Amino acid sequence: IHWTFGFILLLVAYIAMNDQLSAKGVLWLFITIASLFTCVVLHEYGHALTARRFGIKTMDILLTPIGGIARLSGMPKKPMQEFLIAIAGPLVNVAIVIVTLVYLYFTIDANSEELLEDLIIIDSFPELMLYLFFLNIILFGFNLIPAFPMDGGRILRSLLSLKMDRLKATQI
Hints:
two-stranded antiparallel ribbon; single chain
């Protein structure tokens, strides 16, 4: 955990004080943020475990206030290995979307429209699952932006590397 991660705690304290949250509200805010960063860690584990399949070790996974970074010990040798390592993280987000969608499908009835009324206040498990559903869709899309060193940039570079050398693919 990067030292700047402490700013998240300051943000939580600020939100709690500014919104005059009850103890229950503060608890749900912490659960929500912990759930968000659990999704980020799982995303990074997707990269790390896929890299391991190709003999590439992960030195560590660094959590920062803006996301996570799986620091690999080296580059994959083949473009398709880089593609699979890069796409593994976003696919974890897709898996989380599917799991939350299945949960929501079986637990929310036609009278639960109040869940969609206010996604800012989370004070129940179904609301948390709905939040994580949308959040993981956003994380999936954001990570696929084709800008290096984002996952989308690495995916694009790996696909370009199938037809050209890695340096030129990186420059593109």
